[in-house]
């Protein structure tokens, strides 16, 4: 016994001396995964030819055929996997997008197969139409008021008339590649049907019987939830999203507090749902005396069926695949290792679709499980897990000899305590032991939830900062409370769906309300910080530190504390972000952000102060539903964060039209400016009133400006040209309410004309306020009612910036304005064609840059244009 104990201590000492080797020995699939990932990255960024990769694989195969050491053979295999990853990336590289014979915004007749049934919300519907295999369009339809929407289903052949536009991204650094996201679903066009336009049902069926049955099952579940929660649209829509993944009707305001507290993951379809449903289904089968093998097989089939009904969403598919591997291992009596299982699933999905590697959902899914396996499991094994297992059969003294000493000691202490309490209260000792076991299980479960929540938040800190610019402080306690509630909601909700019974539906609604209340309470203590994307070196250092912490999880205490300290320090640095904004000192910069058919301008002053003029927005006409896309939150803010901007000094609202101020609320919340400058604003305007209240709540000073003011600001001169002192404000906002500014620095001036038309331009000319301005931000998106010939003759711009939406329905910029600019040899930079546009002046020379030029700057002397 002594020799065996000494041998065990020797092995443990060797493991602690070399924690990395011990860790990798138990996760043999981790090195191949790393090699495959490295190969995919190599193939993505290095222009290999196919013959080069095949030649390298052949050479490595020959090398592996010679007699060599085991280590050399292993290195050769890993190198071969690197090149195999590059080959996989090349094989799956997307080809050219399909073409449609139609002009921009032209009304065309589209005929095809309904491959995603329509979802209707308020007065709008949306479905996916497959025109040909691999070529799909997302169709929006608008029934007339009081008109019943068409009843469409999967597999119908239909014909519609619609305006077609190719999918398009906002071309700004930090923007989400939405076009590529849709292309992966084979969607290449957005089609908008005129209001009241009919959908003609054609004869014949299309699609497959299998998917017709799946979509029928999905539709039945959605309709049953709609009936169960007919009294509450909020509960109906939210529980449809939680259980079936139908989130198209979810309002952003309903989920905002979940996002802020880091609990939004509990609302969306994820691996958690598959795990909970699998456990519940397996429990029911075992309750019905189903043997373990068939029960596991049926549960696996149920998991894949759930993935199909949820729309084959990637997180659910990955979770179903992981559960399947777990069941296979259990069938062959293999003890599962969470990291090894994760690596196997990741290898499979990367081989099938390497593009998933670059999706946020893929990274978040695998990083969260990796954090559990590398950080949470070792910590729990050192703390509560053995003690929790030791609670079984507390009264059985014979079990103690088979347990490790600290667990046996723990059980002995509990029995002694129960014996003492029994003598004092005369309660039977076995009752006291059962009560102690129950209470301790609850305590251990709470501790495990805290550990899991903390490790997952640390593991996901980097992608959360990069993709969502959020790191939650209250997420630890919020997750401890909300995750169990939502985990209970999933099986209860499915009982309601399957049975149609109102009682479980009511309980599920109560669980949702409780979760919402917990999130609302926590958000009161959540700091209002948003995190810019960290610099590359910091992201790399934090990743390396996390890997070090995972390798040191089973090492000596000193190694663990050192790695934990390094991770904590780097995490504080990510949140604090003490890095200055990316601006050029001594330069006046004007950047037109691509916000579609709207406007948002970033101005960086020579002394470093930052000003945002307008924040874009999407106009909503009539009773149409407000879009879920918030230009301020989803487009403007990510660009500012990509430049390490945490605060703005001034925000300017040129006028109260939604395409200029729709994103302003999010900008005020995210960047907390000191002042909000405004032009002429109707006091009772429905858009302005809530924005003014928000500014007041945030402590932002509202400063109305009028013509005649001229002042120095951060190294440049600011002059207000409009609105005039005698300008009359109407009851509703108008384009001529616009604030017109001229910024001067050195020999250059920038004229920001808002949305004013020819009348205001004529008034400015009459008052001799328009002088030579090398850079003109053209008024009203280049609309024909502005940028008149006399105005351009007085301003003599060298460069004109036009902010307009890609293939917009307004015909902006107009051909007349473009012709007038061309006649005067003005360089025109348009956001609809060039994406983000930047003009800088160092006081002597202008520098132009656009997103399309990929950072290649063109320097222009203004004199060359006159």
What does this structure look like?
This protein has 6 domains: 13-91, no CATH class; 107-207, OB fold (Dihydrolipoamide Acetyltransferase, E2P) (Beta Barrel); 215-358 and 473-528, no CATH class; 376-468, no CATH class; 536-576, no CATH class; 588-865, Ribonuclease Z/Hydroxyacylglutathione hydrolase-like (Metallo-beta-lactamase, Chain A, 4-Layer Sandwich), CATH 3.60.15. It is built from 30 helices and 22 strands. It has a 9-stranded mixed beta sheet with strand order 12-11-10-9-8-7-20-21-22, with helices on one face. It has a 7-stranded mixed beta sheet with strand order 13-14-15-16-17-18-19. It has a 5-stranded mixed β-barrel with strand order 1-2-3-5-4. Helix 3 packs across helix 5 (70-91), helix 3 packs parallel to helix 13 and helix 16 (405-425) packs across helix 17. The N and C termini lie far apart (97 Å). Residues 1-21 and 854-866 have low confidence and may be disordered.
Briefly, what is this?
With about 850 residues, the chain is an alpha/beta fold. The chain has 30 helices and 22 strands.
The pLDDT mean sits at 88
The helix tally amounts to 30
User: Approximately how much beta-strand content do the residues carry?
Assistant: 5-15%
What is the CATH topology assignment of the largest domain?
Metallo-beta-lactamase, Chain A
Write out the strand line-up for the largest beta sheet, numbering strands in chain order: 12-11-10-9-8-7-20-21-22
Structural class call reads alpha/beta
CATH superfamily of the largest domain: Ribonuclease Z/Hydroxyacylglutathione hydrolase-like
């Amino acid at each position: 016994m002594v020799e065996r104990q000494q041998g065990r201590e020797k092995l443990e000492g060797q493991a602690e001396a070399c924690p990395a080797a011990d860790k990798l020995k138990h996760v043999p699939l981790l090195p191949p995964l790393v090699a495959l990932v490295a190969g995919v990255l190599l193939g993505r960024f290095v222009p290999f030819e196919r013959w080069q990769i095949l030649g390298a694989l052949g050479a490595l195969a020959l090398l592996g055929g010679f007699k060599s050491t085991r280590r050399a053979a292993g290195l050769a295999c890993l190198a071969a996997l690197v090149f195999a990853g590059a080959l996989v990336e090349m094989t799956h590289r997307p080809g050219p997008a399909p073409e449609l014979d139609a002009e921009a915004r032209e009304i065309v007749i589209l005929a095809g197969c309904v491959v995603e049934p329509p979802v209707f919300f308020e007065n709008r519907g949306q479905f996916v139409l497959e025109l040909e295999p691999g070529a799909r369009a997302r169709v929006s339809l608008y029934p007339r008021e009081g008109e019943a929407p068409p009843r469409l289903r999967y597999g119908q052949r239909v014909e519609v008339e619609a305006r077609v536009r190719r999918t398009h991204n906002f071309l700004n650094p930090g923007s989400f590649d939405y076009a590529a996201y849709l292309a992966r679903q084979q969607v290449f066009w957005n089609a908008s049907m005129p209001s009241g336009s009919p959908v003609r049902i054609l004869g014949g069926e299309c699609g497959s019987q299998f998917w017709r049955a799946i979509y029928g099952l999905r539709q039945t579940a959605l309709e049953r939830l709609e009936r169960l929660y007919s009294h509450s649209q909020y509960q109906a829509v939210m529980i449809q999203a939680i259980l079936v993944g139908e989130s198209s009707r979810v309002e952003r305001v309903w989920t905002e507090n979940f996002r802020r507290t880091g609990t939004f993951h509990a609302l969306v379809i994820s691996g958690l749902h598959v795990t909970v449903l699998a456990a519940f289904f397996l429990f029911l089968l075992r309750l019905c005396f189903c043997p373990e093998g068939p029960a596991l097989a049926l549960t696996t089939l149920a998991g894949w069926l759930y993935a199909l009904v949820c729309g084959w969403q990637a997180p659910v598919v990955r979770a179903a695949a992981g559960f399947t591997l777990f069941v296979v291992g259990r069938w062959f009596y293999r003890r599962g290792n969470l990291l090894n299982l994760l690596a196997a699933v990741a290898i499979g999905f990367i081989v099938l679709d390497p593009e998933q590697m670059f999706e946020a959902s893929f990274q978040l899914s695998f990083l969260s499980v990796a954090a559990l396996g590398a950080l949470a499991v070792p910590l729990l094994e050192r703390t509560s897990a053995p003690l929790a297992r030791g609670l079984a059969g507390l009264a059985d003294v014979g079990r103690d000899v088979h347990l490790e000493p600290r667990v046996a000691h723990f059980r002995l202490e509990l029995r002694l305590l129960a014996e003492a309490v029994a003598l004092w209260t005369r309660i039977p000792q076995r009752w006291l032991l059962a009560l102690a076991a129950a209470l301790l299980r609850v305590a251990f479960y709470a501790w495990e939830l805290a550990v899991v929540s903390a490790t997952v938040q640390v593991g996901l800190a980097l992608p959360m900062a990069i993709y969502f610019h959020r790191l939650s402080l209250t997420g630890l306690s919020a997750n401890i409370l909300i995750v169990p509630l939502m985990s209970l909601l999933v099986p209860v909700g499915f009982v309601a769906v399957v049975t149609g019974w109102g009682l479980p539906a009511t309980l599920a609604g109560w669980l949702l309300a409780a979760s919402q209340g917990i999130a609302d309470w926590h958000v009161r203590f959540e700091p209002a910080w948003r995190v810019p994307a960290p610099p590359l070196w910091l992201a790399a250092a934090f990743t390396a530190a996390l890997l070090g912490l995972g390798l040191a999880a089973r090492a000596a205490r000193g190694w663990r504390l050192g790695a934990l300290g390094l991770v904590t320090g780097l995490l504080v640095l990510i949140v604090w972000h003490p890095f200055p904004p990316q601006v050029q000192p001594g330069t006046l910069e004007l950047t037109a952000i691509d916000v579609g058919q709207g406007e948002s301008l970033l101005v960086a002053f020579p002394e470093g102060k930052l000003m945002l003029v307008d924040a874009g927005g999407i106009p909503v006409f009539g009773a149409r539903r407000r879009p879920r896309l918030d230009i301020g939150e989803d487009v403007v803010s990510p660009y500012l964060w990509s430049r390490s901007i945490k605060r703005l000094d001034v925000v300017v609202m040129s006028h109260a039209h939604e395409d200029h101020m729709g994103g302003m609320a999010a900008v005020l919340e995210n960047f907390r400016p000191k002042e909000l400058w405004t032009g002429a604003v109707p006091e009772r305007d429905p858009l302005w009133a809530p924005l003014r209240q928000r500014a007041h709540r945030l402590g932002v000073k509202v400063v109305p400006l009028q013509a005649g003011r001229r002042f120095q600001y951060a190294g440049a001169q600011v002059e207000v040209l409009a609105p005039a002192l005698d300008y009359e404000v109407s009851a509703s906002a108008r384009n001529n309410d616009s604030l017109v500014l001229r910024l001067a620095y050195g020999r250059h001036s920038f004229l920001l004309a808002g949305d004013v038309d020819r009348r205001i331009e004529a008034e400015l000319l009459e008052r001799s306020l328009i002088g030579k301005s090398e850079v003109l931000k053209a008024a009203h998106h280049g609309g024909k009612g502005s940028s008149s010939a006399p105005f351009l003759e007085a301003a003599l711009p060298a460069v004109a910036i036009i902010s307009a939406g890609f293939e917009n329905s307004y015909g902006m910029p107009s051909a007349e304005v473009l012709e007038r600019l061309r006649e005067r040899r003005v360089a025109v930079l348009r956001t609809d064609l060039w994406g983000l546009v930047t003009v800088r002046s160092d006081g002597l020379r202008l520098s132009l840059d656009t997103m399309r030029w990929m950072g290649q700057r063109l320097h222009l002397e203004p004199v060359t244009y006159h």
